[in-house]
Task: structure prediction
Amino acid sequence: MAMASARAFRAVAALLASVVLVACGGSSDDGDDPGRHPQQPLATSGTPTWQTVAREGQSFTLASTTLVRYGAGSSWVERTLSGTVSCSNATFGRDPAFGVGKTCQVQTGVTEPPPPTGTWTRIASEGQSFSVSGTRTVRYGIDTRWVQRSVTGGGQCTNSFFGRDPAMGYGKFCEVQEAASNQAPVAVIATPAAGTTFRAGTQVNYSGSASDVEDGTLPASRLTWWVELHHDTHSHPFVPPTAGSGGTVTIPTRGETSDNIFYRFHLRATDSAGATHEVTRDIAPQKARLTITSVPAGLSLTLDGQPVSAPVTVTGVVGIERDLGAPATQDFNGRRYQFSGWSDGGAASHTISTPVNDTTYTATYTDTGPVANTPPSVALTAPANGASGTVGVAMSLSASASDPDGSVASVEFFENGVRIGAADASAPYGVSWTPATPGNRTLTARATDNR
Result:
């Protein structure tokens, strides 16, 4: 009885051992450890072959992260490994071929796609159908055990659709890969600092940098600067788009004379995926008031070439050049005034640089008496009185002229009261005349002054 029981026990034990051997000796598609590393994608190119790198119990070193299989015959387990590896059950998490001498092999002649990036969204449970928009990467499995493939339109969440069972004995799912979103870089302007002001003629330095979640610190080649002069409700280009980490600009001393201006510095950063971020920094002008007046008050002057009635007050940007002008003589309230000088010692027409502080510029005039316009004097200098000429041959007529209280505006010449040619506005005054018929002629010169 006892012997029979013992024989029965041995038979059961042998049967169990046989079952264990089959379970442990299956192909790499059967019953892999759920804790093993994720399976490589199914989509590959080339014809894969395997090269032995070590026998069971030996160690070997990998030059890079590589897919390695461990086993014998048709029984293998795979892992993605790197560095120095021990060809053992412990490394691969199971014995794929119990009682058989095993080897470690690396795959050659195949190019594996890069590992998935981004996040995954569950779309089906095992056995269900699913649909996707367009062509998407879909994975099948659970925990860290997955196989994946490219799917167009839809498919089945099954072993047969994905070509293997990545986690035998476990309920599996299908998930679609969501593209990783690229974050825009962050640009920062260091100089000019916030609150910076400027004067015309000074240099302004600009500099900045940018960082990116994916790219890290961006190189200067991915930074673009440009500067605009803003005036009232519009703007003017000042510095064209220029790549680099910064530069220097000089504020011009001539140009826009309005005080309603500012300069805007733009910095745009672009990451390797094309995402951009733009920041700006405005700098405001330093200002001062200019008062333009005359003695006596009320005379006519010019500011930047435009007539003004003194006194007049304007606000300008410090350092901007302005042009002051005072006519040599002018009539005002029935009196004639002669220019004497400006309060800053400048000539009748001169350029000033807008000072830091409010300043008054006075043009002083001398009263030369009541307004009276004395006619100019003129003398016909050629031909001489009583001279003769030839019909059809040109003769030169000339005259001298002057004005005691102004200037000569023009001189005209006449033959028997009929004007010859055009008036001459500059000395020496003259005109060409050709007698048409014989006989005596009376020639006349007439001067007109500026008043």
User: Anything to note?
Assistant: Residues 1-46, 110-116 have pLDDT under 50 and may be disordered. The two ends are 155 Å apart (CA to CA).
